[in-house]
Amino acid sequence: MAPRALAALAVALALALPTTPAAAQDDAAGNRVVMRADRVHYDESSGIATASGSVEFAHEGRILQADTVTYDEPADLVTASGNVVIVEPTGEILFSDHAEMTGDLREGVIRGVRVLLAENARLAANGARRLGGRTTEMAKAVYSPCELCPETPGRAPLWQVKARRAVHDRLLRDIVYHDATLEVFGVPVFYTPYLRHPDPTVERRTGFLKPTYGSSSILGHQVRIPYHLVLGPNRDATVTPLITQNEGVVLLGEYRERTETGAYAFDGSATSADARDDFGVRTDGRDERWHLHGEGQWRHDDIWRYGFDLYRASDDSYLSRYGFDNSDTLTSDLYIEGFHGRSYASAFGYVFQGLRREDESDRIPVVAPLVDYRLATDPDENGSFFTVDANAMALSREEGVNSKRVSVQGGWERPLLTDGGHFFTLGTSLRGDAYVVDYVPVDGGRAEESGFVGRVVPRTSLEWRYPLSRTDGALQQMVEPIVQAVWSPNGLNPERIPNEDSRDFEFDEINLFSVNRFPGLDRVEGGARVNYGLSMTLLGFGGGPNEFLIGQTWRKRDDSTFGPRSGLGDHFSDYVGRLLIRPDEYVDMLYRFRIDHDDFSFRRSELGFGVGPDWARFDASYVRLEDAASDIVDTTGAREQVAMQGKLELMEEWTLRADWREDLSGGGTISYGGSLVYENECVVIAVRGERRFTDNVAIDPETVILFTVELKSLG
């Protein structure tokens, strides 16, 4: 059946069933033709059918609605007038007062056309011509995704593109303009003889992304112009020239790809800049400076997955100088890990790059492999279960201590709940460690030692909890005393075992009831000790749970392993605890503390609180570290710092943010800044200013201002 006969067929069906408001029939290809109308008239002599009154004509997913539709069968011409609406299968909607189309609605001329695209973007033109159902050519066209002001709809939108001629290609999903002018509030600001961008239905497309303009006291004026490359349905890349006033051009790149079992991505940068000495002073010649970052993860099956992280830079100050990253250590690794039931296994290899001025590359370790395995059996009818923990590690340096370690531990745990509500947990374990070490320095003036060293670590623990609760209306109170007794031998840390993985230690309420407070395996907490504390919780009051915890540790014999300023060196430890208050959904506060057990002075205080809903939020944090265990953590002396940040949404489109960080222990301001963002349905305008203070080598304090403008749907 010829396409031009489809409309006639629908009209004929309507005439054959005059009492039915709709008629339908399948064409030769099996496509449904549907016509609805209040009234239909058909002139057999001229072959002209006229439908009026809420006419709707549908064919192959395309719908035509109008007050009146006339079909001239000999000419295969459909004429629609009065509130004409054409709905395309893609969701695009055309509005007009008059249209002349072919019988299949694929070609024709439309007068005074208005097009509603995805994301509420709009096209309007004096007239349009449809060709082959694929393209729409428009004369004197205007495009904008901005909504018109309801009080003054005749006023120009925030921005719009006007063109002498525009073509919308629905197959390629492109809009092409000839002699185009960008207007802001009706004022022309930019002209181009040719402009092309994807229509709002496109999610990924090769082309330029929004540029970013900024200014820095180190780099000077700078602009980023990213260009996005779609390389396939599962991969893309972005190339971004960073043009700076003081440091020339830096080329940035990013590549991303998804595979059937995972994904990976790389990003990096490179430049040829003026050579500098260790103090940041320019010297003769040029330096090739760069960085490379990547990560990936793939799933082998339901148990195993593997991946990598890569992060390297050409020198210590490159990342911070160009504002890419302020990290002081870059970590690269390869890994494989598996999860099965309650068991876990992993193998990692680590390489580090230190960016601090005191770092010596030949003393930075390479850790490969680092293997961990943990097995936990299913609980039996009494709730008891067994555990197996195994670890193997090889750590090497070009200069300094090298160590290889194998550790195996077996454990058993049994919970018990009495009829009176007392909850006991009995645990026991036996661990064996074997080391082969080289160049370990020892005290007493003896030379560095190498060779084999081992130890056996038995441990037994018994924990008691007695939760007590009371309900008073909507309030529920719970008080829980906790006592934990732990025994293991003293003297489990011979000086020939280097401390590589247990240096980052802090005594707090989190590890108060840990049988071994050290985060790694190189150091072991020994001796007989009792950990005790009191936990209180209030529920049903305000916005969330309110909690308080305080506790202390007593040990039978002093232990110098923790150091004199750790809070654990004496028989009685410092007091540690936390206070969490949430009186309603808009206020929350967390305070963590460590109090000296002799004079009750606060050795460490950490306070964080937030006030307000999401649209008007203020958050602040305060940290004071009175002292640090210098033999455990590479930090000495008191530290005190405060940080604040706020967010305020002004009306619906404006968002104001501000932040500030201050070192109260004498270091002065660390950074402060703020941003103002305007965002509506068609534009994002953002300005960010920041002042950064740093004492890194070759990096001076810096002022940065960044300005971005994004015209939504235009790219």
Protein described:
With 715 residues, this protein is an all-beta fold. Helix content is 2%, strand content 61%. It has two helices and 42 strands. It has a 26-stranded antiparallel barrel. Strands 1, 2, 3, 4, 5, 6, 7, 8, 9, 10, 11, 12 and 13 form a 13-stranded antiparallel beta sheet that branches. The chain is elongated.
List keywords for this structure.
single chain; 715 residues; mainly beta; 26-stranded antiparallel beta barrel; 13-stranded antiparallel beta sheet; 2 helices; 2% helix; 61% strand; disordered N terminus
Distance between the termini: 42 Å
Count the DSSP helices.
2
Q: What composes the largest sheet? A: 26 strands, antiparallel, barrel
Estimate percent helicity: under 10%
Q: Give the radius of gyration.
A: 36 Å
Mean pLDDT: 87
